[in-house]
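User: Study the shape:
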Amino acid sequence: MAETNNHQISAAQRRAVSELVAKAPVLDDLATALHGYEVHLVGGSVRDALLGRLLLHRSAAQRLAGPGASSSAAQDPYSAAQDLDLTTNARPADVLRLVEGLAEAVWTTGIEFGTVGIAHRGWRIEITTYRADTYDRTSRNPDVRFGTSLAADLARRDFTINAMAFSLGADRTFTDPYGGLADLVDRRLRTPGAPEDSLADDPLRMMRAVRFVSQLDVTLDPALLAAIIGMSAELARITPERVQAELSKLLLGGHPRRGLELFVSTGLADVVLPELPALQMEIDEHHQHKDVYTHSLTVLEQAIAQEPDGEPDLVLRLAALLHDIGKPATRRHEPRGGVSFHHHEVVGARLVKSRLAALRYPKQVIEDVSRLTYLHLRFHGFSGGEWTDSAVRRYVTDAGPLLSRLHKLVRSDSTTRNQRRARALADSYDLLEQRIAVLVQAEDLARVRPDLDGNAIMALLDIPAGPLVGKAWRYLKELRMDRGPLNRDEAEAELLSWWADQPKP
């Protein structure tokens, strides 16, 4: 066990933590309210301050869902972290008593685990009593026991870089009993104790490990890596919601490819997202095709490169990663050594829906990623430049609010090393976007509707509301897609001509 004293923090690091405290005067308020008890800032805020990444205020968390994100994607818990975590030797009842009158809001949903949550000065703070838990190792639910020692409380934490504490007392003491600061400097991820014990207590820590590889650009300690490989199947006992939250954070990190490669190589993906390792299809000398797994990771990186700075887009990243997951099921060996994947976008869209639903993603995220998967090949059917106005209208209408993401996905899907072919595809897509812009100016492509509404249809055909009205409406919409806007007389003439050929009830 390594002891780290105050002088072992660099002046810059001490400044970073002090700046964090200065940015959050709420901490001084809490230190005053809990006077007489030990109170320490712990967890990610200390780690990030020492890394020089001051804590993001909660109100900025909405940016994580990216431009044009659906409201459900922006509001999900995986797109916002807790602001501040404190630990104390005060018991929950004492904390509740002492913060009364200070906090604007108090919640006790975690009080059985020793946690009191408060809102104060625009921050969310969770205050947890020292704990010395034990686990039954058949679930991740601990047998909660309150402790009396800060060092023992830090020992139960997932990784050494999260097992550091900064006292809110007057002396601002830094406590690092497990060498977390040295690991942070070396970008190394270790557990405070034996990794097998830590992962057995809470298998979700395996997902947190690969997530931190993406978020913090760390490398796993060899002992931790070996333990994850040996224990990956234990992840199956964690609820899908918690696994999904970690996977989403991994994807939204700064180095998702590194995290995903580890996710696959350790066997964790076999438990969580088996469609991803399945992309590592065997390639033989007689039936050559692109390495779909590597291609998908490259598409993800290229999609990320198109995001506005600081605005990661979960829907786009999921679509980029999963757009080809229908290929293993649709691979066919063709004569003369060819390989085909006919309709893999259709199969892939279904697989996306099934897997993301199993991981309890929000409905809108599922629908959006599935839709992008289904549409990602549409452009290639017209990449020779044979885009009619009708085809452009259908492309825009089918994409709907996902159009900007579809543009990014399709452009990212070109990973050819043939520079001439890559340039030709980019030029062809430029041409499509120009065609879209021209039609958008002439027509309201965001809301392509028939030129006659339901009431006009019923009046002209002299029919009551019912299935026939819907059938006529769909005919007029198809006509609108093919020919563009019609004036009233043209639309009525077309509808009457269509109606004359329809079997009457």
The chain has three domains: 1-186, 273-447, 454-500.
